[in-house]
């Protein structure tokens, strides 16, 4: 099929063709960026937290006793919680991924040196690693004699007494690129703390930029504030029962306390991301809406044109054009318009991405999205035009002999 | 004539029912989505303290060290250290000033039937109440002297008061917060500004309300926990009472631009003075933000919502292009009919009016649909588990705005095609028939 007649015919509908092209380009630009945002957010949603997500339940307890001895209370509570059938391991902790309790320290490599990274401190009783299900990839767990009190009442001065730490792979790579981190000293505050182990992942309790989201230090410091979280590990099917029993056990042991946020880890994660999920749904709806409107627009316009050109189609058929030729004509015409739209659209998509990078800290749009977006719109255009084009192809040659 | 044109339009719609429905649906969806988001942003950008907001300012001084590991943190957080807040409070250079911090405390009711529970409130200084014009149902706040004496008094908000005391008078009675008794000296008349502008602006800025207010110095003496961000640096080791931890919010009332200017100079002088004492290593840049400026600077409207608005507007734009294109094709196809009318003596403006009415009818129908969709959209926003959800209601301005947008959109969509179609050359069109 030679192009010139199609182009010549399009110049008779300059404004209409231009509008359709603009619509396609705008749709292309928005859909490419929206698709990128959706993928970005879905990835965040599935970021590994590093803990055994489907086996954990927790409950936050605030002791109201004026003269409470937190360390003694926690030890008693832990013994009772451990006795609940089905519980494999328990620990008292302060921070957890997604629980917003974020105590971050600047980590230096020498005393009073500049901070190389900011990392969240995770503190807990012996067995924290086993309870949370953290994967030790190098080194060892803490020894019983390495635990010190956190010192919550004294501005967390445990950080200056704690001898050792376990860090995440991401933090180790950031602080000691290309070196073995084991045995190295870091300075989260005044005093050196030696790295004895490396875990693969541990997500910080609050949202951070993705490059920093896994920067965590685990310290053998015993939480000694009035407000702590009990974590219990159990089989997935036992979680609800264990959670209920844990609340009863704690209440029975000592009722002058407030128990809050009794939930499974999966609930905690779901709550943390509920905004993100709403946003993903909205982004999907918007992209789908745009594509549908554009497809309907293409189909609507094509059917107008088919009606308008019935006579000329008839003439062409009368002078020897096959049905196939007519079909091809409309398909090619659509291909040209959508092609022009997509070309402009990719440029617009890049411009839009630039704006988003500036105002919403969106990363750069990979070329793949543009290619897929362009292809999708081309396919969509062909699909939308198929119906009207088939109707055009079925116009009988005899129309040529009739009046308008 | 108008009725006749309407009749013609109705006839034209009948000939292509599906397409007309499609155009109305597209414009309805576009307007509905846009108006939903415009309304949400409109209510969230509202003035939390009408009549007073123009005189309220946040002074921003930055005591943080130069080297820090947050390179991209471009938003100032405005938090102050205890040292600086107390200096500004006692210097009393503004008409009114108050330092404050948020805290959640266990409340322990006297009745045995109620279990202890957590409640969020604020630790504030005396001027907080007159400065923000908090409405008192009974009683009043405390004095600056009470602040210095670390008195143990509390002002309750309506909800907590009702929960603890029902309908009995509560003034003079005690409330046990954490492990200390506080005497009730005032009850607020359900004060819940949206957002809670005076606190650190975060995800909870909408939907949360403070139920108790106690003197800041008392809370500091009792070492009550604060909620929110606290940033410490240096090696002082004496925590939040030092000049090395920023965690307090500070507000001033200044009733003229001149005073605001003078206060800013005062802040800059303080900065320079502190530099002489080895603090405030960053270059002097004292700022004073008005309340509304402060809210927008702190992004009280989450970025995701602004993105949703742009998305809705983009969608409306594509829908508009779609309708303009379809109407154009539709009108041009009727070139023959238009030519006949023109040849029979209709002026261009008659044709233009006729087609304009047809396009306008689609716009109005789409707008009406859009209004319904916007109400539906707002309803769905109200179902979100976010603090701002309950605010998503359409007021009369927004209602009129929706209609206006619909008509403007409809007319704009019809204008170009109508103008283009009424310019057909009758003779040429008739000849080709």
Descriptive overview:
The complex is a heterodimer of chains A (404) and B (433). By secondary structure, chain A is an alpha+beta fold. Helices cover 49% and strands 18% of the residues of chain A. In chain A, the strands form three sheets. In chain A, strands 3, 4, 5, 7, 8, 9 and 10 form a seven-stranded mixed sheet that branches. In chain A, strands 2-12-1-13 form a four-stranded antiparallel sheet. Chain A has a two-stranded parallel sheet with strand order 6-11. In chain A, strand 8 (185-186) and strand 9 form a beta hairpin. The model of chain A has no long low-confidence stretch (mean pLDDT 89). Chain B is an alpha+beta fold. In chain B, helix 2 packs across helix 12. Chain B is elongated. Chains A and B meet through helix 2, strand 4, strand 13 and helix 8 of A and helix 2 and helix 10 of B. Chain B: Residues 20-223 form the MacB-like periplasmic core domain. Chain B: It comes from Dyella nitratireducens. Chain B: It is found in: Cell membrane. Chain B: It is a multi-pass membrane protein.
